[in-house]
Design a protein that fits this description.
Blueprint (H helix, E strand, L loop, with lengths): L1 H29 L2 H8 L2 E6 L6 E2 L5 E14 L9 H8 L3 H13 L5 E8 L1 H8 L8 E11 L5 H4 L2 E3 L2 H6 L10 E3 L2 H5 L1 H5 L3 E7 L5 E4 L15 E3 L3 H11 L4 E7 L4 E8 L12 H10 L8 H4 L9 H11 L8 E2 L3 E4 L2 E4 L6 E2 L1 H7 L2 H12 L7 H14 L17 E2 L2 H8 L19 E2 L2 H12 L3 E2 L5 E4 L13 E2 L7 H13 L14 E7 L7 E8 L6 E7 L9 H13 L6 H13 L5 H4 L10
Parallel strand pairs: 2-10
Antiparallel strand pairs: 1-8, 2-3, 3-4, 3-5, 6-7, 8-9, 10-20, 11-12, 11-24, 13-16, 14-15, 17-18, 19-21, 22-23, 23-24
Length: 621
């Protein structure tokens, strides 16, 4: 028995030994992943950053291109020895104290076999240091891409780059970004980040115990090829964009122009604007605080992010909804004594003839006419109560793209304001409010707010007789067959196309005999609507929507000029000049319109309280 036990122990020991030997053979001879893992302890990964995609306008004029950024890196483990520190500091234009400070920071913040010693080395310092870099073992450069701009224009639309935040690093799904990488922060740079950024390449090097390179790893076995970003072709016309900015200079507001037949944005302007080069990686540190402290908010994109009450520019939509709902017909007249009386409340109206038709109500901007439309809708026998009638009215508005994000490809878009019935229940009490409480909605005031891009989309929708394409600035993406599907799909309103002609005729009368007739353009039939928007914080805003030519629209436009007064005084002239520039660039009526253009360009409408607090270096070339 004892001999058997000894035999079992003997065989057990032999078996365990054989298993260990076989496993070691597999690890060391048959399977090289453990060898690779060991090697990686002595590897340094160097990132090869792709060329970011270029950006062009609709005529393929270059807008945005790349400039190299040079980051001086250190291999890890960091063991600086036998280098001429004094010469190194002189080349880098730092002193010894700064050298020690950066070296200690690099030791604390190493990442994947490397650490940043100094970011954004200038071209001059890079060239000077690169010639002698072999003397300073352990140091190497990584080259990234900054943005530069062909024009001092379109800053809000284009956006800018910035360093990836810690939150973005933690939340990323693809694990594409590393600490210190850049990505798009605003505008199309952010929206089309994935297309523009490309795919980073990787190179692996053997590193000795002192952190010095000893050649490529296994004939570049782990290296990854870099893939450059895709070029982006936008729908904007840079010359039209520049012209609109010229007109809107020294004013607060926005201009948005759309091609109705496609939804392509021809110009998207927010003012004050800034020189985009001031916000690239190399320069932003010098200007960011000035921009943040500027009370006119030059970074804020009013075109897509600022909701305004639309004022009387809303009346064509209100007329269309009234026609569809049966509150009026195209032959309905209302009497107007210069005001609308609602209990003790009096709503003032503009001077015009007493009997007002649908077309005249648009041309003369009659508030009374639209109060009556709203009253008829809210008190219609087809609805059980005010809330049901209001919900129906709201559904019509939503079908025009009002009260929600359109889906424009320029960040960051606002939904605007279009309150639901529950909002009024909370404000006045359930079943305790009627049309009289919300009558201001009928003429574009009250709890209603549209961004300029939504206003322009309304104009494009009317131009198309009842449908729109989501406004967008992408026209083509390199090596892609199509743009995102949502931008080529028709979105139909709840208003029958048969109702649009009557309203468009009224909008044509605005520029023939109505509120904008003084600035009509000879030879171009414009359908428009002026708006003077009540502003509780200062002077009224000047607003205007239009499209042209009325029968075959090529451009739809919205203009808002803050605290500028009547719509016909500032917003409408700006819109008409932009329309003429786009439709008749070679036949611009210089003689008859030169004085108007000169007046607008030279006028400073920024409220006086802001003027002395602005840093004009933001806007300079």
């Amino acid at each position: 028995m004892r001999d058997n036990r000894s035999l079992y122990i003997y065989f057990g020991v032999v078996l365990v030994g054989v298993i260990f030997i076989l496993r070691l053979f597999q690890i060391q001879v048959l399977d090289d992943k453990y060898a690779n893992a060991a090697d990686r302890i002595s590897l340094r990964k160097q990132t090869v950053y792709p060329q970011r995609g270029l950006i062009f306008d609709r005529h393929e004029n270059l807008l945005v291109y790349n400039d190299p950024l040079y980051d001086l890196m250190l291999s890890v483990p960091i063991r600086i020895s036998n280098i001429d520190t004094a010469s190194f500091c002189k080349l880098l234009e730092i002193d010894r104290a700064e050298f020690d400070k950066r070296l200690n920071a690099a030791k604390r913040n190493s990442f994947r076999g490397k650490a940043i010693f100094k970011k954004n080395i200038s071209n001059l310092v890079y060239a000077r240091l690169q010639e002698r870099l072999y003397e300073f073992k352990g140091f190497f450069f990584e080259i990234r891409q900054d943005r530069n701009y062909k024009y001092n224009s379109a800053a809000h639309l284009l956006g800018y780059l910035g360093e990836v935040s810690r939150k973005q690093l933690d939340r990323q799904v693809e694990e594409y970004y590393e600490q210190g990488d850049f990505n798009g922060k605003k505008g199309v740079e952010r929206f089309y980040e994935k297309e523009l950024r490309g795919v980073k390449g990787e190179q692996y090097f053997y590193v000795d115990k002192h952190g010095l390179d000893r050649g490529s790893y296994k004939d570049k076995k782990l290296d990854k090829e870099v893939v450059d970003g895709k070029n982006l072709y936008l729908s904007i016309d840079i010359e039209l964009q520049k012209y609109g900015e010229k007109l809107l200079a020294n004013k607060l507001g926005s201009v948005v122009a759309i091609e109705p037949s496609t939804g392509e944005i021809l110009a998207l302007i927010s003012s004050p604007f800034y020189n985009p080069v001031k916000f690239n990686i190399q320069n932003r540190g010098s200007y960011y605080n000035a921009a943040i402290n500027d009370p006119t908010k030059p970074i804020f994109n009013r075109a897509v992010s600022a909701p305004y009450p639309p004022g009387s520019t809303f009346k064509p939509v209100m007329a269309l909804v009234g026609l569809q709902d049966g509150a009026i017909t195209k032959n309905t007249y209302f009497g107007c004594r210069g005001y609308y009386k609602l209990g003790r409340r009096t709503i003032a109206c503009h001077y015009h003839s007493y009997n007002t038709s649908l077309q005249k109500s648009i041309a003369s901007s009659c508030n009374t006419y639209y109060c009556n439309i709203f009253k008829n809708m809210m008190q219609s026998g087809k609805y059980e109560n005010t809330e049901e009638a209001y919900n129906s009215w709201r559904r019509y508005m939503r079908s025009f793209g009002i009260g929600g994000e359109l889906g424009i490809d320029v960040s960051v878009e606002s939904r605007g304001w279009l309150r639901d019935a529950a909002y009024y229940d909370r404000m006045y009490g359930e079943d305790k409010w009627s049309y009289a409480r919300i009558i201001s909605l009928s003429f574009g005031q009250g709890e209603l707010g549209l961004t300029p891009v939504q206003m322009a989309n309304v104009a494009a929708t009317i131009a198309n007789r009842g449908h729109y394409y989501i406004p967008h600035v992408v026209r083509r993406i390199e090596n892609q067959d199509s743009i995102p599907t949502k931008y080529v799909v028709k979105n139909h309103t709840l208003v029958d196309p048969k109702h649009f002609d009557a309203v468009i005729q009224g909008m044509q009368q605005v520029t023939r005999t109505g509120t904008a007739s003084a600035i009509a353009i000879k030879g171009i039939d414009i359908a428009g609507k002026t708006g003077t928007v009540q502003n509780p914080h200062g002077k009224n805003h000047s607003a205007y929507i239009a499209f042209a030519p009325a029968d075959n629209p090529k451009i739809a436009i919205a203009v808002v000029v803050e605290e500028a007064g009547y719509g016909a005084t500032w917003a409408a002239p700006i819109a008409h000049l932009v329309i003429e520039k786009y439709l008749s660039p070679d036949t611009l009526e210089v003689s008859s319109r030169a004085s108007l253009e000169k007046k607008i360009i030279k006028s400073n409408l920024i409220p006086y309280k802001y003027r002395t607090q602005r840093d004009m270096s933001l806007y300079a070339e």
